[in-house]
């Protein structure tokens, strides 16, 4: 059952006029060419699909291009009838009308949803019967190569593959572009700067976001269950490490202003804009909670709620949080920010972890799901981040270090069982 009967709304002249008006307002002062208003989304898991669906739910949706990283995913897109489906309270809300770029043979191919005359490639009735018959490779062979610049990019891939994903679109990003990272963990921007944009003059502008919506993957790609309404906290990332000193005078690029305005005016996202310092504090709070719940559930193979009312888990949790609190309170970029010691005290962090574990008691953590799926975990961007920052500050985080390697060992064990691998040093 669908909660939206007309789930195929397409761009109209009125919508185009709205985009161009916003783009004109945001670009007039810069003296640069007008923004197109198009938003690209890289990573179509739970978060990326939810963002795309939310943008399509606006009364005047902006043009959205989905970046699919291989032809197999494009084949799934065709089989899913070129739609994204969000299920809320057992009601399916379907959105279509997305343009698609597919990465194939080291080249991006453009597959627009809309024909030049403004009509859809197929009517709704035709899609259901024809999509199954379309061969992705054949469709890509007939598609055009696409190297057009990307103005606004939402990155929703897993942290470990961020560098590889951004390298594929590096040539399409300019110093006028804005990249929004919607991911778990911390430290990816440092890696991107080192490995993708080492020259500061060529870097795009950065934004980060923290999403607390309840999102669960369903059986098929591009299907997500929205299990709980949360918020999306957004903020720009200054090009320097110190935070509080730049909060009072932030000069946003036109593409950053446009992306921030569009997302905060998209009701399903429940998005709010914060200063760089406030955003960093929210990121660190989420990092602390993820660095307890994710690794412990991944190691033990249990649901989030099973961490509660268990004395041994409680002892490990306290030791982890003592180290995490020590590192966060000593971070040089937070010195001078009032209330850090109380906000990140071990007791307050433990209360937050307990509340989150209780709220998501029936859920499997994303790290446990990654291990079950034989995927690389985000442990290096959670406990690994704490260990690295601690080393910089002369703080030894032995408990976090141990937990990190237990997760890595658990992940390797799962892969070895699947492949029946024998360690080479035992031969």
UniProtKB/TrEMBL annotation:
Would you kindly state one Gene Ontology biological process term found in this protein's UniProt entry?
Answer: pantothenate biosynthetic process
Q: Which Pfam families match?
A: ApbA, ApbA_C
Q: What is its EC number?
A: 1.1.1.169
* Cleavable signal peptide: none
| Keywords linked to the UniProt accession | NADP, Oxidoreductase
Sorted alphabetically, the Gene Ontology cellular component annotations on this record are: mitochondrion
Residues in Ketopantoate reductase N-terminal domain copies: 39-238
Q: Which residues form a coiled coil?
A: none
Task: Write one Gene Ontology MF term.
Answer: NADP binding
Q: Where is the Ketopantoate reductase C-terminal domain?
A: 279-408
Q: What class of enzyme is it?
A: oxidoreductase
Q: Name the protein family.
A: Belongs to the ketopantoate reductase family.
Q: What name goes with this protein? A: 2-dehydropantoate 2-reductase
């Amino acid at each position: 059952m669908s909660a939206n009967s007309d789930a195929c709304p397409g761009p109209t002249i009125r919508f185009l006029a709205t985009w161009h008006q916003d783009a004109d307002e945001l670009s007039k002062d810069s003296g640069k060419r007008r923004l197109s208003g198009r938003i690209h989304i890289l990573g179509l898991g739970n978060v990326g699909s939810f963002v795309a669906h939310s943008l399509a739910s606006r009364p005047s949706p902006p043009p959205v291009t989905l970046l699919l990283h291989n032809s197999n995913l494009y084949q799934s897109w065709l089989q899913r009838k070129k739609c994204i489906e969000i299920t809320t309270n057992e009601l399916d809300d379907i959105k279509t009308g997305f343009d698609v770029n597919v990465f194939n043979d080291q080249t991006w191919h453009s597959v627009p949803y809309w024909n030049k005359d403004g009509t859809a490639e197929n009517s709704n009735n035709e899609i259901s019967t024809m999509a199954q018959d379309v061969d992705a490779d054949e469709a890509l062979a007939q598609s055009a190569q696409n190297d057009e610049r990307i103005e606004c990019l939402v990155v929703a891939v897993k942290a470990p593959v961020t560098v590889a994903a951004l390298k594929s679109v590096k040539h399409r990003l300019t110093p006028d572009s804005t990249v929004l990272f919607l991911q778990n963990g911390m430290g990816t921007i440092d890696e991107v700067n080192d490995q993708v944009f080492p020259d500061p003059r060529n870097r795009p502008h950065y934004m980060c976001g923290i999403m607390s919506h309840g999102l669960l993957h369903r059986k098929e790609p591009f299907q997500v269950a929205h299990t709980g309404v949360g918020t999306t906290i957004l903020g720009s990332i200054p090009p320097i490490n110190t935070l509080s000193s730049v909060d009072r005078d932030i000069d946003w690029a036109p593409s950053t202003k446009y992306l921030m305005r569009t997302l905060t005016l998209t009701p399903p996202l429940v998005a709010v804009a914060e200063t760089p310092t406030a955003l960093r504090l929210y990121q660190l709070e989420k990092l602390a909670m993820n660095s307890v719940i994710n690794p412990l559930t991944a190691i033990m193979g249990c649901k989030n709620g099973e961490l509660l009312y268990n004395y041994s888990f409680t002892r490990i949790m306290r030791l982890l949080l003592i180290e995490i609190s020590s590192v966060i309170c000593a971070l040089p970029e937070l010195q001078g920010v009032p209330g850090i010691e109380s906000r990140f005290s071990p007791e307050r962090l433990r209360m937050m972890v307990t509340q989150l574990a209780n709220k998501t008691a029936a859920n499997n953590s994303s790290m446990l799901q990654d291990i079950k799926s034989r995927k690389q975990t985000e442990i290096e961007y959670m406990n690994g981040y704490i260990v690295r920052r601690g080393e910089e500050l002369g703080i030894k985080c032995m408990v976090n270090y141990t937990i990190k390697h237990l997760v890595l060992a658990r992940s390797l064990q799962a892969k070895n069982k699947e492949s029946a691998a024998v360690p080479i040093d035992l031969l």
